[in-house]
Design goal:
The complex is a heterodimer of chains A (458) and B (467). With 458 residues, chain A is of the alpha+beta class. Chain A has 15 helices and 12 strands. Chain A has helices at residues 58-65, 77-84, 109-122, 129-148, 155-163, 178-183, 186-196, 212-223, 273-286, 292-300, 333-349, 354-371, 375-389, 394-403, 407-417, and strands spanning 17-20, 26-31, 37-44, 88-93, 98-105, 202-208, 248-254, 260-267, 304-312, 319-327, 423-430, 456-457. In chain A, 59% of the residues are buried. Chain B has 467 residues and is an alpha+beta fold. Chain B has helices spanning 69-76, 86-95, 120-132, 138-156, 159-171, 194-204, 223-229, 282-293, 299-304, 349-366, 370-382, 384-387, 391-403, 410-420, 423-433, 447-455; strands at 28-31, 37-42, 48-55, 99-104, 109-116, 210-216, 254-259, 265-274, 311-322, 335-345, 440-445, 461-466. A 6-stranded mixed beta sheet of chain B has the order 1-2-6-3-5-4, sandwiched between helices. In chain B, strands 9-10-8-11-7-12 form a 6-stranded mixed beta sheet, with helices on both faces. Classes of the chains: A alpha+beta (458), B alpha+beta (467). The interface between A and B is large, with 98 and 86 residues.
Chain lengths: 458, 467
């Protein structure tokens, strides 16, 4: 165990301490005794950006294999033991990290630590071909269910592939392609584990009704003997120009229920003041029923049935922000696009007024309060700031940084980034089944609107 | 495996410490002079408050031919008031950092407000305006009607939504409101106008038949004063409860395939009706259904996912459709829908359904094991403090109890009842809930691939309908 730092945090009096085991495992502890619950969250610094050509989807498929047993845990024992102890659990894979989490009744916390340590230290003792084949099929069905078998399901995948060029580590989304999933071998999985699943590549956060001294002793007992690994291959460099340089555009003729216009923009990296300004710009533009796009397209022009925005914060490459408009009735894409462009031009030219800033900041603040309202939410944010920015304490002050952004900064980031030469556009035109070329499965490897923060769950 | 090279020190699995007691919060019940019932619950540390307004307005209250008027009326509450235009109202609410959601469901209607406690008073003032003096501008009603008509095809493109619509249509006679979508159809929605919305509001929205649930960290708030100056200003007359006609469900075992040529997966929805939560069998049903399909290690997923890889996950669950106060003269019995749902790749549709039926037959023949029951109880009871950290989750459960005419202590008692329910009771309940020859199976998928293998299973007549 290493040094401990205590700091009064900015938001709601929450605090955390940091420690490091000799093998490099970082530990973040935060006490909250209001409810008899404790959250365990383990972030491994590995995501889909670490995958290589021909092996997209490996990080996520591997996440599934982490639930298939380890030296002392048979089969689905991880799930069975946690749930049998009254806990809940899951894992998710994103571009820049893979996380595993258990929320437990506080008196069952030690079990979760024991289970996480067992698979971190001994997964390969149990990993076998049968598990790989089975979870490969499960993940392929996850892909079908979440992307390929729903309308507009591959839009996010398509926009990502356009905004990050071929060969870039963020060109593909975490679910991967069917062909690459088919190609994964047991040796790939073993090598992936050895390279990435080591204590010095992870942050463990424990939050809730805990005795920090006891948790440190448990962490030392269960994780302390797991050897560190110095052979990790860093991800390929994600550096890209701030601006795509020209509008990229794909017209998609698919069996979807309505015309749709989506556009993704490269935005400033996570962890920067500009990224917070970009979040507010997107909120002004498209979050909520008083946002500019909703007011314009749904209320006044009545050309849209829904409007939305999304933000994928990324630390190792430009972030991605997107707009999503589903057309109403007979409204045409050019009509909608002209209105969207007018709204974007206005945001680039004039700083939002005080009331609009108040609205955007209040919405973002509520989202933060909601995220920090549970011990699991707090544990995840502490891990995020520890893994991506080296300082978990930043989690407690994140909302203050967003509230500190000025209207002029929002305008400036819009002017710099929300421009036609920095976007990848998808224009959907519905066709009926008989008009489509080829079977649906042949069209499925393109792209979607995924979840803002996570690539996939167990 | 020889290459494992495990070098860590192993320790025996730790035993649990001693549990700190936790109980689902019982709210403080009161009423305002207007007749509005108020349930409040202080949750320390919860900075985002949740307010739920339950209106005793089941969809059975909708006039014939006007399916969807309840949903449009609820949405229209926030589209302008005596003091604010629709756009002003939306902006004021969002400047509180609030989200406002108004929905109409079979058992009742609900307005949900989530807002930081620091701005609760202002948001409650706006919410009161929406309930008390909605303007229902004709142009906004017209917009909501058009929007609803646009949303219907978007919803029906979702395999899960399409399956649910078909199951309701199969289970209930066309005359029953339960057989038809909550938000109305392409036929009924265009008939909804300003006059219909106003009439429906006048008939069904009043404090005397409404309940406000307020949950959050209320330590810095004089809630009585806040309520007096906000919701206290909403007044109205008394009203009788809406009569609920009975609806017989047809659970003759059969299969309906909603054809989606080219679909790479088949959405499964296998269901029938069951009791509501007033029925004493409910805890045993919850327990047995969890063992069948509550999680990844339940019987269905153990085979269909973790052995066969046919699916990302199959779940069994129950959802209450109507729950009138028990033993009220003239009221129908409560109802829930019991269902197994999930999606499987197209080629595995026949084998997956075959496995579902094998799981059900094995369950019927052999029952649940003691260990299965114990794990289920430990999970269902043990996760309660985790599930109810957020104010919103407490508020929604309290509001569900109100809407379903259950006592305030219901959820707290449910945990005690679950803990007392034995393996035999849970077994009997789940077998009775999912009899293999009384299940209506909806498949949304490519009929050209799935019809023949499904017919071969002999689980009932197979009909194909167009999407």
């Amino acid at each position: 165990m290493g040094h401990a730092v205590t700091e009064q945090a900015g938001s709601g009096g929450l605090t955390a301490t940091e420690h490091r085991l000799d093998n490099g495992l970082r530990l973040v502890l935060s006490e909250d005794h209001l409810n008899p619950v404790a959250a365990v969250c383990l972030w491994y610094d590995v995501g889909s950006r670490h995958e290589v050509r021909g092996r997209t989807g490996l990080a996520h498929l591997f996440e599934h294999l982490m639930f298939q047993g380890s030296a002392q845990v048979k089969g689905n024992g991880h799930f069975e033991l946690i749930q049998g102890a009254g806990g809940s659990l899951n894992g998710t894979t994103s571009f820049e990290r893979t996380n595993y989490f258990e929320t437990m009744p506080a008196h069952q916390l030690e079990l979760a630590l024991w289970l996480e340590a067992d698979r971190m230290g001994s997964l390969l003792a149990a990993l076998d071909e049968e598990s790989l084949q089975n979870q490969r099929d499960v993940v392929k069905n996850e892909r079908r269910q979440r992307y390929d078998n729903i309308p507009y399901g591959t839009a996010f995948e398509r926009m990502t592939a356009l905004a990050y060029p071929e060969g870039h580590p963020y060109h593909h989304i975490p679910i991967g392609s069917m062909a690459d999933l088919d190609a994964v071998t047991l040796d790939d999985a073993r090598a992936f584990f050895r390279a990435n699943y080591a204590p010095d590549n992870a942050v463990l956060a424990v939050v809730g009704d805990i005795d920090p001294g006891q948790v440190r002793r448990w962490a030392e007992k269960y994780f302390g003997s797991i050897p560190s690994y110095d052979g990790k291959v860093p991800p390929r460099d994600g550096t890209l120009p701030d601006i795509i340089g020209a509008e990229l555009r794909v017209e998609i003729r698919e069996e979807v229920p309505a015309r749709a216009l989506m556009a993704a923009y490269r935005l400033p990296r996570d962890g920067t003041r500009d990224c917070d300004a970009a979040e507010l710009a997107l909120t002004v533009l498209g979050d909520g029923v008083a946002s500019r796009l909703y007011s314009r397209l749904v209320r006044r022009d009545r050309t849209a049935v829904t409007t939305g925005v999304g933000l994928l914060r990324l630390a190792g490459a430009p972030s991605l922000g997107w707009l999503d408009v589903k057309a109403s009735g007979s409204a045409q894409i050019p009509q909608i696009e002209a209105a969207v462009d007018e709204e974007l031009a206005r945001l680039r030219a004039e700083a939002p007024g005080a009331e609009e800033m108040e609205r955007a900041q209040a919405l973002v603040e509520r989202e933060w309060l909601d995220r920090l309202a549970t011990v699991a939410g707090r544990a995840d944010e502490l891990c995020r700031y520890a893994v991506l920015f080296g300082d978990p304490q930043l989690a407690f002050t994140a909302v203050n940084r967003v509230l500190d952004i000025t209207a002029e900064e929002v305008r400036a980031v819009a002017a710099a980034r929300l421009r036609p030469d920095n976007r990848a556009v998808l224009a959907y035109e519905p066709v009926t089944a008989k008009d489509t070329v080829g079977p649906v499965s042949d069209r499925a490897s393109g792209a979607d609107k995924g979840d803002k923060r996570d690539g996939a769950g167990q | 495996m020889t290459d494992a090279a495990v070098t860590m020190d192993f320790h025996p699995r730790p035993a649990p410490g001693s549990a700190r007691p936790w109980a689902f919060p019982v709210p403080e019940r009161g009423a305002l002079a207007s007749g509005l019932t108020v349930l409040r619950c202080h949750r320390p540390g919860q900075q985002v408050a949740s307010v739920q307004i339950c209106l005793d307005m089941p969809l059975d209250a909708e006039p014939g031919g006007l399916d969807g008027v309840a949903a449009i009326m609820m949405s229209a509450l926030a589209e302008g008031t005596s003091e604010h235009t629709a756009e002003e109202f939306a902006a004021e609410m969002e400047r509180c950092g609030a989200t406002l959601d108004a929905t109409a469901d079979y058992p009742g209607a609900r307005v949900s407000l989530e807002v930081p406690v620091s701005r609760l008073a202002k948001a409650l003032g706006l919410l009161t305006e929406a309930l008390r003096t909605p303007a229902f501008p004709g142009s906004e009603i017209e917009r909501l009607v058009r929007n609803r008509l646009d949303v219907i095809p978007l919803e029906m493109a979702s395999p899960g939504r399409r399956a649910a619509k078909q199951l309701a249509q199969e289970l209930f006679p066309a005359s029953a409101r339960l057989s038809r979508p909550r938000g109305g159809t392409e036929d009924t929605v265009p008939r909804i106008d300003e006059a219909a919305v106003r009439a429906f509001y006048q008939a069904h929205v009043r404090p005397a038949t409404a309940t406000a649930v307020v949950v959050g960290d209320l330590s810095g708030i004089d809630l009585d004063a806040v309520l007096a100056s906000t919701l206290g200003g909403w007044t109205g007359d008394a009203a009788e409860p809406v009569p609920i006609p009975s609806a017989a469900a047809d659970d003759t075992g059969r299969v309906v395939i909603v054809d989606r040529p080219g679909a790479v997966q088949t959405q499964l929805l296998i269901g029938r009706t069951g009791p509501d939560r007033h029925d004493p069998v409910w805890p045993a049903l919850v327990l047995g259904t969890y063992c069948l399909g509550g999680t990844l290690t339940s019987r269905l997923d153990r085979v269909l996912r973790e052995e066969k890889g046919y699916t990302y996950g199959i779940r069994a669950a129950q959802r209450v459709l109507r729950s009138p106060a028990p033993r009220t003269a003239g009221q129908a019995m409560g109802l829930s829908v019991l269902a197994i749902s999930g999606s499987v790749d197209t080629a595995s549709t026949g084998p997956a359904l075959d496995d579902v039926w094998k799981v059900l037959r094995t369950l019927a023949a052999e029952g649940l094991t003691e260990a299965e029951r114990d794990t289920a109880v430990q999970n269902l009871v043990g996760v309660a403090p985790l599930e109810y950290e957020r104010a919103a989750s407490v508020a929604r459960t309290l509001a569900d109890q109100v809407e379903q005419h259950l006592p305030d202590e219901y959820q707290a008692q449910l945990y005690a009842h679950l803990a007392e329910t034995g393996t035999a009771e849970a077994t009997a309940a789940v077998i009775a809930a999912f009899p293999e020859n009384r299940l209506v199976t909806i498949l949304v998928g490519d009929a050209s691939h799935v019809e023949a293998p499904v017919k071969a299973l002999g689980i009932g007549n197979v009909e194909v309908v167009t999407a």
